[in-house]
Design a protein that fits this description.
The complex is a heterodimer of chains A (574) and B (412). Chain A is mostly helical and 574 residues long. Among the domains of chain A are: 35 residues, no CATH class; 123 residues, no CATH class; 219 residues, no CATH class. Helices cover 44% and strands 3% of the residues of chain A. In chain A, the strands form two sheets. A three-stranded antiparallel sheet of chain A has the order 1-2-3, with no helix packed on it. Chain A has a two-stranded antiparallel sheet with strand order 4-5. In chain A, helix 1 packs across helix 7, helix 2 packs across helix 7 and helix 19 packs across helix 20. Chain A starts with 14 loop residues before the first strand and ends in a 10-residue tail after the last helix. The relative contact order of chain A is 0.09. Chain B has 412 residues and is mostly helical. Among the domains of chain B are: 102 residues; 72 residues; 85 residues, no CATH class. The relative contact order of chain B is 0.04. Chain B: InterPro entries: SL1/TIF-IB_Component (IPR052669), TAF1A (IPR039495).
Chain lengths: 574, 412
C-alpha cells in the first residue's frame, strides 16, 4: 500500500497484492518481484503475507468463515491489548511502533511470515494440500486425538467414544479440528519449541514493549489490570471478526482458564528478548519510574508510611548499588545480568528498611511504638512521631477489608462469556444448550439474590490504597516523623535499633531448589509476615517472591560481615 | 487463608463452593443464591471424573436454596427441577423421585402422580438398565399413590353405601386403582429392605378383597425372611394381622416372642404379658414374667402404672401360690444390684406418692415382695398410705408383712 513506484510496464501507480505477496499492477497485471514487508495490523482476509501452498485459496468459504492463521489471531489480540494500554495512558508509540516491530520480528524469527518466495523451505506448511505422508516424516507427532484427550476433560457432554469417532473420520485434513488453518499443526509442530506463542506470552510482549519505552507501569500493575478486566485477555477472542471461526484445537490456544502468573510472564519476556536478538534496552536511570528510588516512593505512599523513610530506601539502594544503570537495564541474553523485577525489588528494599529501623522481631517495634505514643500525647509540637502500632492497626484494617473483598471477587470470577466455543460441530448444539441452561439458571438464582448490584469494574488505578493528609482521624502517616526511631551519632542520623536479624544465613542455589530462600510462616516474626503480606497484596504475588528478594538484598547489604564471621550485627555504617 | 494470587477455573469454583456452603450453614439464602449464580458456569466444564460433579452440586444446592428462600415458589422449583433433569442423564430418575417427594410434601398429589407416571415411561438406552433401582422405586411410589386413590374411593363408596347410593363408576375406578397398586406394591416388597408403609398398604388391599392367604404370606415373608433386615415393625404387623383374624394363641405368641427378643421395651409387651399371664401353660407364664421384668428395665416405662400393675399382679399371684418362687429369684438375680437405686429410692418414693398414688401402690407392692417390708420404698409409701387412711394400703401392708419370709428366700 505504501508502494509508490511506477509500474515498469505501464507507468501507472496502481498496485495490488497477489496471493504470493507480490505487488502487481492493476492496470496491466504486471507482477513484480517486490514482496511487501508491511504487516497491516488489521486483519484483512485477502492479503496474505506469507507464501503457502498454491492449493489454498483465500476466498471466503460458503459458510461465511474464512481461513485464518493462529498468528493472525495473536496479532489481533496484541493489537487490542495495545489499544487498551493506550487508553490507560501509555504512549501511542507502544502500539504503532514498538509492539508492532517486536511482533514482526517474532514472526520473522519463527518463520511464520516474511518468507522469501524462493526460499521454498516452507514445506512444513499444512497437510491440507500435502498428503498425509508428509506428516509421517515428523517424529513423535501426537495425533489430534491425543492432543485433545490430553487436555482436561473439557466439554464432557459427549462420551469420549463418539467424539473420537467424529475426529477419526478426518484423518487427512486437519482443518476440521480447528477453525484456524494451522491450529493443530501449531500445537503439534511447536511442542518442543519453547517460544510457541501463547496467551500469557501476549502479556510478555506487552511488558517487553512497556519496558522498552520505560512506561510507568510495572509488571504487577499490568497483570492486575488484566485481572480487573482493563486489558483484553480473558475471552479476548470475542473481538475476533465474525468470519474468523474459532473451534476445536483453537480452544487450547486461545481460551484462558487461569490468571497470568507473574513469574511465567516475566521469564517468558526474558526468553523472548533473547530470542528476538534485541539489543540492550533503553537505560533505566534514576529519573525513570522503574528505578527503585521512584518505585519506593510510590510504594511508601501507598503503604501509608512516612515520607522520611525514602531517605533510607535511597541509602540502601545506593549502598548495594542496585540503582545503577547497568544493574537495572535489561540486556537480553546476558545471563549474568540480574533478572530484575523492579516492583519486587522496591518492595523488598522497603521491607529491609523497616527491619533496619524497627527490627520487626515482635518486640522492639512495639517498644518504639510505646515511646512514640507517649511522646505524641504529651508533646504536640513539631508534628507526630511515627507510631508503628498505630500504623499497623490502620493498615491491618484496610488490608483485611481489601483482602476479603479480593477473595470474594476470586470466588465470583466468571470465566465464560456469551461467545460459546466448542470442539466440533457435533458438540455445538450441546454446548449451546448448556450455555442456555447456565444463563437461565443464573437468571433464576440471580433474582433470588436480592437486590445485589452486579460488581462494578473498578476504575483502573495505579494506587490500590490511598491516604489523604486531610483526614482528621490521623490515619495518614505520610507526614509523620521518624525522630522517634532515630538518633544522632557523629553528625549522622542513625537508627536507634542496634540489631538486625537475617532472614536466612545462606542463600540457596536457584537452579537446584528453585528459590533463593524458603518462606515459612512458622519461622519468622509476625510483624515481618505482616509487612510481607502487605506488599504481597499490593503486588499480587506470592509472599515468597518478596521474601526471596529481601534475602538477596540483605546478603548484599551485609556481605562483608557475612563473609567474615557467622555473627550478624549492625550493617550500615551508622 | 493462603492468600494466593494465582487463580484458575477450577480453584475459583472451589472457592465459590465454599462461600455457598458457608452461606447455607448460616441460612443466608440470598447470599447462597448469589454465589450459586457465579458457580453455574462450571456446568460448561463438567468434570465428569470427579466424585461429585458440578451438575449434582447445583441440583442439591439449588434445591436447598429454593426450599428455604422466602421468595421462591413451587413454580420456580418445578422449572428448576426440569432443568436439572435435562442436565444429567445418569441422574434423571433420581431427580424425578426427589421432585415427587417434594411435590408430595407440599400437598400437590396430582402433580406428584403425573410426575411419577412420566418418569415411569422414560427410556434411555443402557441408562434404563443402570437406573433400574430408581425405576423400581418410582413404580413402588406410584403404587403407593394408587393405593391412596383407592382408599379415597373406597371411603366415598362407603359413605354412599350408607346413604343408599350406588356408584358404579367410582367402584370401577377403585378396582382399577387396586390392580395398579397391587402390582407395584407386590414387586417392591420382594426386594430385601424396609418397606413398612408399602407392606401395610398392600396387606390392607389384600384384606379388603379377602385374600387373607396372600396377606399372611406377605407378612410372614416380611417378618421371617432372613434376607430382610431385622425389623420390629414386621412382627408388629404380623401380630396385628393374626389378632385381627383370630389366629391361634400359638402363632400370636411366636410373633410377639420375636418382638420381645428384638425390642424388649416395645409397647406391645404389655399385651403380651397379659396374654401370657393368663395362659395355662407354665412355660408361657414363665415367659410372661421375663417379658414384664424386661420392660421395666427401660427408663421409659419407669412411671407406667400399667406395666407395674402387670408385674405386681403376677408377682402377687406367684407369692400367694407359693409355687415357682424360683422364677422370681432368677429374674431378680440380675436386677437386685441396680433396680433398688433405679426404681425404689426414697426420692422416687416421695415423688411417686406425691404425683401418682396408683403408681406408688403398684410399685410398693413389687418393692415389698422383692425387697421386703423394711425397704425404703415400701416403708415410706405404705406409711404414707396408711396415714392417709387409704384402705388398700393397709391391706398391702398386711400382705407384705405376712409374706415377708418370701423375700428372705428370694434374696438369699
Amino acid at each position: 500500500r505504501d508502494f509508490n513506484e511506477r509500474c515498469a510496464q505501464c507507468s501507472e501507480v496502481n498496485w495490488g497484492l497477489t496471493d504470493g505477496g507480490r505487488f502487481y499492477c492493476r492496470s496491466c497485471h504486471n507482477v513484480t518481484e517486490r514482496t511487501t514487508e508491511v504487516v497491516n495490523t488489521d486483519f484483512v482476509c485477502n492479503s496474505r503475507i506469507h507464501t503457502i501452498c498454491k492449493g489454498l485459496k483465500n476466498q471466503e468459504k460458503t459458510d461465511g468463515s474464512c481461513e485464518w492463521y493462529v498468528c493472525e489471531g495473536f496479532q489481533l489480540i496484541l493489537k487490542k491489548q495495545a489499544e487498551a494500554l493506550e487508553a490507560l495512558g501509555v504512549c501511542p508509540q507502544m502500539k504503532d511502533e514498538v509492539l508492532c516491530n517486536f511482533w514482526r520480528r517474532y514472526l520473522q524469527k519463527t518463520k511464520q511470515a516474511y518468507w522469501n518466495t524462493s526460499a521454498g523451505e516452507n514445506v512444513k506448511a499444512l497437510p491440507v494440500c500435502d498428503s498425509s505422508t508428509d506428516v509421517d516424516s515428523e517424529p513423535e507427532r501426537p495425533s489430534p486425538l491425543q492432543l485433545l484427550s490430553l487436555s482436561e476433560s473439557e466439554g464432557n457432554l459427549q462420551t469420549d467414544s463418539s467424539f473420537a469417532s467424529s475426529i477419526s473420520k478426518v484423518s487427512e485434513s486437519t482443518s476440521v479440528c480447528s477453525g484456524s488453518v494451522d491450529g493443530s499443526l501449531y500445537l503439534m509442530k511447536n511442542r518442543k519449541e519453547k517460544l510457541r506463542m501463547t496467551m500469557p506470552m501476549t502479556l510478555s510482549f506487552c511488558y517487553m514493549a512497556l519496558l522498552w519505552l520505560r512506561e510507568p507501569m510495572t509488571l504487577s500493575d499490568l497483570l492486575r489490570f488484566v485481572v480487573e478486566g482493563h486489558i483484553p485477555y480473558l475471552n479476548v477472542f470475542q473481538d475476533f471478526p465474525e468470519k474468523m471461526k474459532l473451534y476445536g484445537l483453537d480452544l487450547k490456544i486461545f481460551r484462558v482458564e487461569s490468571w497470568p502468573v507473574y513469574e511465567e510472564v516475566h521469564n517468558k519476556m526474558l526468553e523472548l528478548a533473547a530470542f528476538l536478538d534485541l539489543p540492550r534496552f533503553p537505560d533505566i536511570t534514576d529519573s525513570c519510574f522503574l528505578h527503585p528510588d521512584m518505585l519506593c516512593m510510590k510504594y511508601l505512599m501507598e503503604a501509608n508510611l512516612p515520607d522520611e523513610l525514602h531517605n533510607w530506601t535511597c541509602r540502601v539502594v545506593k549502598k548495594i548499588r542496585i540503582g545503577e544503570v547497568d544493574f537495572l537495564t535489561l540486556v537480553p541474553g546476558n545471563k549474568s545480568t540480574q533478572n530484575v523485577k523492579y516492583d519486587v525489588l522496591a518492595a523488598a528494599v522497603i521491607v529491609v528498611v523497616l527491619k533496619l529501623l524497627f527490627l520487626l522481631d515482635d518486640h522492639y517495634e512495639w517498644l518504639l511504638s510505646d515511646f512514640a505514643e507517649g511522646r505524641n500525647k504529651n508533646n504536640k509540637e513539631g508534628g507526630p512521631y511515627f507510631d508503628f502500632e498505630k500504623w499497623y492497626k490502620v493498615i491491618k484494617c484496610s488490608l483485611d477489608m481489601k483482602q476479603k473483598k479480593l477473595d470474594e471477587e476470586r470466588a465470583k470470577y466468571l470465566w465464560r462469556c456469551e461467545k460459546v466455543l466448542f470442539y466440533s460441530d457435533k458438540m455445538k448444539s450441546k454446548v449451546l444448550k448448556r450455555r442456555q441452561t447456565v444463563v437461565n439458571l443464573q437468571n433464576q438464582f440471580g433474582k433470588l439474590s436480592g437486590s445485589v448490584l452486579p460488581a462494578e469494574k473498578p476504575n483502573p488505578s495505579s494506587f490500590q490504597l490511598s491516604w489523604s493528609e486531610e483526614n482528621t482521624d490521623g490515619s495518614c502517616f505520610h507526614g509523620h516523623s521518624l525522630k522517634g526511631v532515630l538518633q544522632e551519632k557523629r553528625g549522622l542520623l542513625t537508627a536507634k535499633n542496634p540489631d538486625y536479624w537475617l532472614c536466612t544465613v545462606k542463600l540457596c542455589n536457584e537452579k537446584t531448589c528453585g528459590h533463593r530462600a524458603h518462606y515459612r510462616e512458622v519461622d519468622f516474626p509476625q510483624s515481618y509476615h505482616f509487612v510481607i503480606r502487605l506488599f504481597s497484596f499490593l503486588l499480587r504475588i506470592q509472599p515468597s517472591y518478596i521474601h526471596d528478594e529481601v534475602c538477596v538484598i540483605e546478603h548484599k547489604l551485609f556481605n562483608k560481615k557475612l563473609c567474615k564471621k557467622p555473627k550478624y550485627n549492625t550493617g550500615l555504617g551508622k | 487463608s493462603s492468600h494466593e494470587y494465582k487463580l484458575n477455573f477450577k480453584k475459583s469454583k472451589e472457592m465459590c463452593l465454599s462461600y455457598i456452603q458457608d452461606a447455607m450453614l448460616q441460612k443466608q439464602w440470598k447470599k447462597a443464591a448469589e454465589f450459586l449464580t457465579f458457580y453455574m458456569e462450571s456446568l460448561e466444564k463438567d468434570f465428569a471424573r470427579e466424585y461429585l460433579s458440578p451438575s449434582e452440586m447445583i441440583w442439591r444446592i439449588g434445591t436447598e436454596i429454593l426450599c428455604h428462600h422466602s421468595h421462591s415458589s413451587m413454580k420456580e422449583f418445578n422449572s428448576f427441577t426440569e432443568q436439572m433433569k435435562s442436565l444429567g442423564v445418569k441422574r434423571y430418575l433420581k431427580v424425578c423421585l426427589e421432585h415427587t417427594f417434594h411435590l408430595l410434601c407440599n400437598g400437590l398429589l396430582d402433580e406428584a402422580y403425573q410426575n411419577l407416571s412420566l418418569s415411569e415411561s422414560w427410556r434411555s438406552g443402557d441408562q434404563t438398565v443402570i437406573q433400574d433401582k430408581e425405576m423400581k422405586l418410582i413404580k413402588a411410589y406410584r403404587g403407593l399413590m394408587d393405593y391412596y386413590k383407592w382408599s379415597k374411593q373406597k371411603n366415598i363408596l362407603l359413605e354412599h353405601g350408607q346413604d343408599g347410593f350406588e356408584d358404579l363408576s367410582v367402584e370401577q375406578e377403585m378396582h382399577g386403582c387396586f390392580r395398579k397398586a397391587a402390582v407395584n406394591l407386590k414387586e417392591i416388597i420382594k426386594i430385601p429392605g424396609v418397606w413398612d408403609l408399602f407392606v401395610k398398604c398392600y396387606v390392607d388391599l389384600l384384606e379388603f378383597y379377602g385374600d387373607h392367604n396372600e396377606a399372611r404370606q406377605v407378612l410372614n415373608e416380611y417378618a421371617y425372611n432372613s434376607k430382610f433386615p431385622t425389623n420390629p415393625n414386621a412382627h408388629v404387623y404380623l401380630y396385628q394381622f393374626l389378632k385381627r383374624h383370630g389366629e391361634s394363641k400359638k402363632s400370636l405368641v411366636s410373633a410377639l416372642k420375636i418382638l420381645h427378643d428384638v425390642v424388649p421395651s416395645h409397647e406391645l409387651m404389655i399385651d403380651f404379658n397379659i396374654m401370657l399371664q393368663k395362659s395355662k401353660k407354665r412355660k408361657r407364664r414363665r415367659l410372661g414374667l421375663e417379658v414384664i421384668f424386661a420392660v421395666l428395665d427401660y427408663a421409659g416405662w419407669k412411671e407406667n402404672v400399667k406395666a407395674w400393675s402387670c408385674l405386681a399382679r403376677q408377682l402377687k399371684q406367684i407369692v400367694i401360690s407359693e409355687k415357682h418362687l424360683d422364677w422370681i429369684k432368677q429374674e431378680w438375680n440380675s436386677r437386685k444390684d441396680w433396680w433398688p437405686a433405679f426404681h425404689f429410692s426414697r426420692y422416687s418414693a416421695k415423688r411417686n406418692w406425691q404425683e401418682n398414688e396408683c403408681l406408688s401402690y403398684e410399685k410398693a407392692l413389687v418393692a415389698g415382695i422383692l425387697l421386703g417390708k423394711d425397704c425404703k420404698y415400701f416403708k415410706y409409701v405404705s406409711h404414707q398410705g396408711c396415714k392417709a387412711q387409704v384402705k388398700r394400703f393397709r391391706i398391702l401392708k398386711k400382705f407384705v408383712n405376712k409374706h415377708n419370709p418370701v423375700y428372705l428366700r428370694i434374696s438369699g
